[in-house]
Structures are given as structure tokens and as C-alpha cells.
Design brief:
- This protein has 251 residues and is an alpha/beta fold.
- The protein folds into two domains: 67 residues, no CATH class; 169 residues, no CATH class.
- It is 21% helix and 34% strand.
- The strands form two sheets. Strands 1-3-5-7-9-11-13-15-17-19-21-22 form a twelve-stranded mixed sheet. The chain has a ten-stranded parallel sheet with strand order 2-4-6-8-10-12-14-16-18-20, with no helix packed on it.
- The termini are far apart.
């Protein structure tokens, strides 16, 4: 394990090589202890771990003790419980309660309850309950229950149950069940089941089943309807499985 001075020098060289922002570099430059270095890392967590990949979980484990990482709210392995701000990477599993905030990278797993907030990147996995809020990026996977709220970007995958709310953008994939609500943008793909409701924009693809209801707001989405109802506002059309309902038009 490197000494503090060796570690500081190495991190500054890595930051300079990856064109770190001035504020982040200055925090490292002014660090007087390992905890100061960890604070600089957590303050720039997304950039350090994901955007630049300047360091990873192995680097943290090799240069900081488990106690030092835990004091900074960083978990790289094992199972942990948190009601404060935490940072998960590697193979760590974090259960977040209360108003806890967790940023998860790599293959980290997070279970979020109450009003916990989670930002999930890469291949992180999240299960959200209660009124938890999740923002999912990269290839993150989210299962949302209760009244959980999810924003899914990139190629994130979401399964939404109960009264969960999902905003799906880019090429995100969503499976919506029960009374879940989904807003789909970009090239997002949604499968709507039970009484789920979907608002679709852009070139989103929606498959509607059971008593689900879809609103097509642009006329560009690809729709497949089993027993769901699809209302195309752009082209003034309603799609419904033949024979399910008697169609009555009124003036």
C-alpha cells in the first residue's frame, strides 16, 4: 500500500492525464490526508469512476483500508446498510433507508427503501421500494416497486410494478406492470401489462397488453396491441384488438 505522499502524487498524475477539472484537481492538490483524497474522489465520483475511469474498485481496495473507505461512505465489496450518503462500486451491496443517497457503479447492487435516492451507472443493479428515486444510466438494471420513481437513460433496463413511475429515454427498456406509469422518449422500448399507462414520444416502441393504455404523442412509435388501447394523437387514431369492444362514435 502506498504512503500518503506516494498516493497523492499518483492520483494527481492520473487526474492530470485524464484532464480533470480545476476544482477536482485543486482538491487533490490541497489534500493533507487520505480522507481528504477520498473526499476529492467522492465529490467527483461519476467522473472518477465512470467518465474517465481514472481509478476503479481494485485501486481503492489496494490503496485504502476498509475502515478508511467506510468512513468516507465508500463500499467496494460485502453487504452494507446505509441511511446516509454512500458510494458503491465493485461487488458491494448496499441497502439504503430513510433519506440515504447512493451512487452505484460497476456491478454494485443497491436496495433502496423509503425516500432513498440512487444513481446507478454501468451494470449496477437496483431494487427500489416505497418512494425511492432512481436515476439509471449505462446498462444499469432497476426493479421498481411501490411508488418508486425511476429515470432511465442509455441502455438501462427497468421493470416497474405497482404504482411505480418511469421516465425512459434513449434506448432504455421498460417492462411495466400493475398500475405503473411510463413516459417513453427516444428509441426506448416499453412492454405495458395489466393497467399500466404509457406516454410515448420519438421513435419509442410499445407493446400493449391486458388493460394497459398507451398515448402516442408523435405518431412515430411502433405499436403492438394485444388487449391494450393505443391512442395516436398525432394521426387521430385509436388502436384496439378487434372484437374486444363495440366501437361507438359520438358527435
Amino acid at each position: 500500500m502506498k504512503t500518503f505522499e506516494e498516493l497523492k502524487k499518483d492520483l494527481l498524475e492520473r487526474a492530470k492525464k485524464h484532464n480533470a477539472c480545476q476544482d477536482g484537481y485543486r482538491m487533490g492538490l490541497n489534500a493533507k490526508s487520505k480522507q481528504d483524497l477520498l473526499k476529492a474522489i467522492t465529490n467527483n465520483w461519476y467522473w472518477v469512476l465512470s467518465a474517465s475511469k481514472m481509478i476503479d474498485a481494485n485501486y481503492l481496495e489496494n490503496n485504502f483500508s476498509e475502515e478508511e473507505l467506510a468512513e468516507a461512505g465508500i463500499y467496494t465489496r460485502k453487504e452494507h446498510t446505509s441511511n446516509a450518503k454512500s458510494f458503491a462500486c465493485g461487488s458491494a451491496t448496499v441497502e439504503a433507508y430513510g433519506s440515504a443517497t447512493v451512487e452505484a457503479y460497476g456491478s454494485a447492487t443497491v436496495e433502496a427503501y423509503d425516500s432513498a435516492t440512487v444513481k446507478a451507472y454501468n451494470s449496477a443493479k437496483v431494487e427500489a421500494y416505497g418512494s425511492a428515486t432512481v436515476k439509471a444510466y449505462g446498462s444499469a438494471t432497476v426493479k421498481a416497486y411501490g411508488s418508486a420513481k425511476v429515470e432511465a437513460y442509455d441502455s438501462a433496463t427497468v421493470k416497474a410494478y405497482d404504482s411505480a413511475t418511469v421516465e425512459a429515454c434513449d434506448s432504455a427498456t421498460v417492462e411495466a406492470y400493475n398500475s405503473a406509469t411510463v413516459e417513453a422518449c427516444g428509441s426506448a422500448t416499453v412492454e405495458a401489462c395489466d393497467s399500466a399507462k404509457v406516454e410515448a414520444y420519438g421513435s419509442a416502441t410499445v407493446k400493449a397488453y391486458d388493460n394497459s393504455y398507451v398515448e402516442d404523442c408523435t405518431g412515430n412509435i411502433n405499436t403492438v396491441s394485444d388487449h391494450g388501447i393505443i391512442k395516436d394523437y398525432y394521426n387521430h387514431k385509436i388502436y384496439i384488438k378487434k372484437g374486444k369492444f363495440e366501437i361507438i362514435e359520438i358527435e
